[in-house]
Amino acid sequence: MNRTVESLFSTGIERYQAGEGPDTLIPVFKDICDRAPKNSNAWTSLAWLYLLADKPALATKAAQKAVKLNPQDAQARVNLVLAMLDEGKKGVREHIDIAMQLIIAASELRDEVKENIAEGLERKPEWNSLKKVQKWLFEPDS
Fold it and tell me: Backbone phi, then psi, for 20, in 5-degree steps?
């Protein structure tokens, strides 16, 4: 990833964390993905933004690319599950199981996914798919 793409990505993340919405950030992350098509973090971020914008078909495509580029990225797997659930697609169990293994193996991944879920529910409180994924990953016995 060249310096320009890195700085675009950092700035995009900062803008997101400052509360900026998906409508203005999606073009930024699309541009990053066009410039650095092998950047799994950019695809993961783009998928998340599409999910927040209620665009599950586009989120599915972005999340699939992120998972293909980095199969060990728990957040990319979570995004793919969310997109599949929001689209009404089957086959989420495999990705949930892999995400579960990843967050069990690495506490920093668990913390990151947990924080992202909480933040997603702040931005989109009635996101039932996200509530379901949260329950599957963090309350598996309930």
Answer: -65, 145
The domains of the chain are located at 3-138
Output the pTM of the full model: 0.93
**Tens digit of each residue's pLDDT, the chain (142 residues):** 456 889 999 999 999 999 999 999 999 999 999 999 999 999 999 999 999 999 999 999 999 999 999 999 999 999 999 999 999 999 999 999 999 999 999 989 999 999 999 999 999 999 999 999 999 999 866 5
Please classify residue 75 by burial: count the beta carbons closer than 10 Å to its beta carbon, then call 0-12 exposed, 13-18 middle and 19+ buried: buried
How would CATH label the architecture of 3-138?
Answer: Alpha Horseshoe (1.25)
What is the DSSP track for 87-124?
A: HT-S-HHHHHHHHHHHHHH-HHHHHHHHHHHHHHHHHS
Retrieve residue 76's tokens.
């990319």
